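Need a sequence for this fold. Nothing fancy.
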């Protein structure tokens, strides 16, 4: 089954938005060779931008504008929310156009992450999100989408035809024994270090690539946990609430898993500004409950 056929089960707007991402993801997947130089600019977090980051960002913003139903877009690469004045719809979109850019140099999988809110306010809690999707540019280009209450589904791009074909329908995160944790070990809090020791005692195996989309996709299929914790020198952690934590926690929750900041569901966190960061634990329900048990102490 093709992506556009599968999307008949969701509202037409959601179909339009997911297809906009799918369309641009083909261009992004084909642009790695040409656009991998440094752009010579920094994003709002002071990180070097690749040409690819900025190019992918513009492709996606233009595509959302083109749909006519998007009122505003918050992007990890833009300092401010982009307002689309002539929009006839009310959608608010968050985008991380290219997550894991430092992995482009080493040719590891990287991704695009998108969150979708129907009432047009990207500064809402994640629990107000209506749909989310991510694209993973690996050996295959895959697209995973979730619409509230309608499951999580994965498609793979068939490069011969340029169409996304169903790879796995109604994904549920199994209970698994894989873990990955970001952050310098010497900066981990005692609670986080104890949680990781507990996982190791229970034969969880370390697997961490440094690219959130790839690491999350592994957890989505195999269970376990991906974490980027609060650090002693950075209590808010590294990852971005709006662009990374919220959409992936929405997808995890729709796949019967969970996303937490260690003490509460990510989806219940009220954002204060678009650049908010958060500690993040994403994975199967049992492992996330264990994380919270250690982190709440
Ligand atoms: P880059 O986009 O700078 O490569 O950062 C990627 C990322 O935001 C996320 O995709 C990873 O999970 C995390 O940072 C990796 O951070 P560390 O390099 O500190 O492990």
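Here you go.
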């Amino acid at each position: 089954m093709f992506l556009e056929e599968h999307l008949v089960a969701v509202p037409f707007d959601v179909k339009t938005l997911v297809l906009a991402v799918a369309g641009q993801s083909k261009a992004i997947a084909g642009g790695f060779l040409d656009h991998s130089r440094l752009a010579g600019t920094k994003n709002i977090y002071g990180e070097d931008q690749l040409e690819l980051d900025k190019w992918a960002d513009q492709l996606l913003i233009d595509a959302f504008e083109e749909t006519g139903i998007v009122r505003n877009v918050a992007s990890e690469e833009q300092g401010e929310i982009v307002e689309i004045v002539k929009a006839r719809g009310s959608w608010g979109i968050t985008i991380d156009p290219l997550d894991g850019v430092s992995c482009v140099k080493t040719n590891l999988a990287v991704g695009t992450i998108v969150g979708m809110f129907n009432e047009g306010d990207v500064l809402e809690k994640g629990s107000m999100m209506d749909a989310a999707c991510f694209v993973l540019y690996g050996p295959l280009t895959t697209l995973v989408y979730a619409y509230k209450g309608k499951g999580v589904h994965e498609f793979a791009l068939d490069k011969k035809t340029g169409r996304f074909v169903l790879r796995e329908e109604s994904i549920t995160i199994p209970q698994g024994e894989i873990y990955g944790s970001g952050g310098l070990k010497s900066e981990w809090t005692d609670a986080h270090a104890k949680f990781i020791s507990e996982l190791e005692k229970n034969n969880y195996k370390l697997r961490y690539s440094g690219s959130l989309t790839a690491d999350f996709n592994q957890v989505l299929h195999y269970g376990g946990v991906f974490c980027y914790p609060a650090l002693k020198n950075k209590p808010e952690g590294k990852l971005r609430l709006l662009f990374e934590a919220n959409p992936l926690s929405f997808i995890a929750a729709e796949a019967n898993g969970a996303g937490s900041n260690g003490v509460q569901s990510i989806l219940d966190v009220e954002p204060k500004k678009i650049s908010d960061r958060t500690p993040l634990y994403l994975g199967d329900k049992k492992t996330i409950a264990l994380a919270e048990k250690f982190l709440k102490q």
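For context: The pocket of AFP is lined by residues 47, 99-103, 182, 210-212, 215, 228, 238-239 (CB under 6 Å).
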